[in-house]
Amino acid sequence: MKKSLSNNTPLRTIILLIVILITSCPSIALWAQNTGALPTLSSTKTDSSNKTNTADWEEGHATISAQQSGSTKEITLDTSLITFHQRPYTQAWKTNLGNLGSASQTWLLTNNNQIGPSLRRQVNEVYTLQADSLLYFNTTKPFTIFSYQMGSKNENLLRLLHTQNIKPNFNMAFQYHKLTSPGFYKAQRNNHDLVSLNAHYTSNNKHYECWGAFIFNEIQQDENGGISDISKLTDSRYADKKTMPIVFQHDDYSTTRSAVTNVQKEYIFQLKQTYALGHSDTIWNEDSSLKTIQLNSRFSLVHQLEFSTNTHTYKDLRPDSAYYHTWFDHRFNALDSVFSKQTWTRFDNQFLLKNTIGNLQHPLELQAGIGARIDQLSNELNNAADNTSIYSNYLVAHLDRNAMHPNELEVHAYGQFIATGSASGNHTLQLQVAKKISNQLGNIQIGLNENQSNAAFQFTNFSSNYYAFTKDLNASLHNQLYVKWKLDKLHLSFEARQHLLSNYIYLNAQQVVSQSDQTIAITQFIISKNFVFRNVINTNELLISQLKSDDPFAIPSFASKHQLAIQTPAFHNAMQLTSGIEALYHNAYYGNGYSPLFQQFYIQKTTRINNQVNISLFFNVKVKKMRAYIMFDQIQQLLGTQNMQAIGYAAPDFSMRFGFNWNLVN
């Protein structure tokens, strides 16, 4: 028998939207003073003309730039106000289990370029720091970004970044992220600690350049197994969600913590260095008071070394025989526990030759080389490890040409092919071409991604102290073709993605590893349209997905995001104000279930999550380099409409969040 989750109806959601719009917009409009424009990303350079104090921390003049390792493309930090209030980990069509920091899934398919041996399909990657995404700064003064968010039920999120140049050619940066969220329901606490330390050095003659990074990620997730009876969500006796019965109900263990936990620990060290062959020229200004070094080089040697270790640990200190019956039969006593620990240690070393073709000021850069990696994967039980060591050699190449002017062609390509070892034949290919056609016709971007990779170790070799399995699986192949068209003049963009997946691996409804023997075709369209009238901004984004009903994916065929906001200056432009309403809608679909034992989502086609609307109100303010917000989430729950995130996992109750971001220059 097929069931449905969530008790809202389309009529109720429409009425709710109208009521909120009518009651909120007039009061928000009182802030309007003059016209506004759709905000955009701005540079991180600060202006000292409005300096009002002489404290140690001030908004003095500083020149700050940021790039990723090995890239010359400058990245600007997001200082916009209209999206500042949005949760940092649930954008781009991502959802979690109803509590900040919990396992995450996405409705928008992407092609992961990771190939070769791997530990598992990540559900926490959205929260972690990764070496390839770190920013390397160059700043004339110490620069700090301090962000803090506080929400209902003791939800806290702290993000701190500090960077400064030790010397003009040597910069260091430090990051720390702390997330704690006990959640609205019993025993669903999340606790994250993320740390990164990275440095960038350039020799005085510009020939040698080095990037180094160390990262530590620890993600702790208490598992409550979901709500045991979702019909109780509308029972007034359980108005306090902390009293709601859950699957892993162990009050004898703790009333706040769960006896079932998943913990991920990850250490990453990366070193990337280049040496440019060629000569340097010294150029002086007109009065010979300032000199600059200009490097003229066609060839460079590139070396990258990376070492990482990733551990996932599952513990159940109060196991229930009924819960584990799907996998094994065992009658537990009071002292028994279920334990699983998987570890992946990876060493990767590559050498490339970089060739600069064409104009040195606007070059086509080609890199090609070889690499070697060692992967060790293991199941560790009672200090006895089941180890699998894999040695691989691979070929790798990059091709990059950035557009220096709006009408120029931009090209990026990347390829990697594993030639030896058990993962031989695994490969990834990425190609992207972008160009501005004209002001009237906008920009177009076309891309192709292909990725073939062996099954993750978790799907082929899993062990706990009571249950183990091995499974032979074929390598999965994922092809993606996409076209994106953007017309800034009309605030309009359109993107089409075509996915073809072969030998796709997933957990079925019995939470057992399965592999599809059919080629799966999924088409997705992302349409974005913004309207701006004076100081009123309306943003709209649609996600349309075409897939078969029996495909092993949980994606609604239609979802949309909408925002109606008013942005206006105040106090003679000393303050910027933005306030409004947001709504997220999706139609009914068969949602994913979640398996704590594997920390993976599983496919089921029995229970549907009905049409849902999430409503939020926000008020954002910006004063100089400080931004702050107050937000009210899950407004629709004030009318008794309870939304679901996954099967057995409900959205949080109506709540309030407060947060701020402060850019400090010393």
Report on this structure.
It is built from two helices and 37 strands. It has 666 residues and is mainly β. It has a single domain, classed as Beta Barrel (Maltoporin, Chain A), CATH 2.40.170.20. The N and C termini lie far apart (64 Å).
CATH homologous superfamily grouping: TonB-dependent receptor, beta-barrel domain
**N-to-C terminal Cα separation, in Å?**
64 Å
> Which CATH C-level class is it?
Mainly Beta
List low-confidence stretches. 7-11, 13-59
CATH architecture: Beta Barrel
State the main characteristics:
Maltoporin, Chain A; 4% helix; 3-stranded mixed sheet; mainly beta; 666 residues; single chain; 22-stranded antiparallel beta barrel
Summarize the entry for a quick read.
With 666 residues, the protein is mostly beta strands. Helix content is 4%, strand content 52%. The longest helix has 20 residues.
Topology:
Elements: E1 3-5, H1 10-29, E2 64-67, E3 94-95, E4 105-106, E5 136-139, E6 143-151, E7 155-167, E8 170-181, E9 190-202, E10 208-222, E11 260-284, E12 291-316, E13 338-357, E14 364-381, E15 384-401, E16 410-418, E17 427-438, E18 442-453, H2 457-460, E19 461-463, E20 468-470, E21 476-487, E22 492-502, E23 505-507, E24 513-515, E25 520-533, E26 536-546, E27 558-570, E28 575-586, E29 589-590, E30 593-595, E31 600-602, E32 607-609, E33 612-623, E34 626-633, E35 644-646, E36 649-650, E37 655-665
Parallel strand pairs: 1-32
Antiparallel strand pairs: 2-5, 3-4, 6-7, 6-37, 7-8, 8-9, 9-10, 10-11, 11-12, 12-13, 13-14, 14-15, 15-16, 16-17, 17-18, 18-21, 19-20, 21-22, 22-25, 23-24, 25-26, 26-27, 27-28, 28-33, 29-32, 30-31, 33-34, 34-37, 35-36
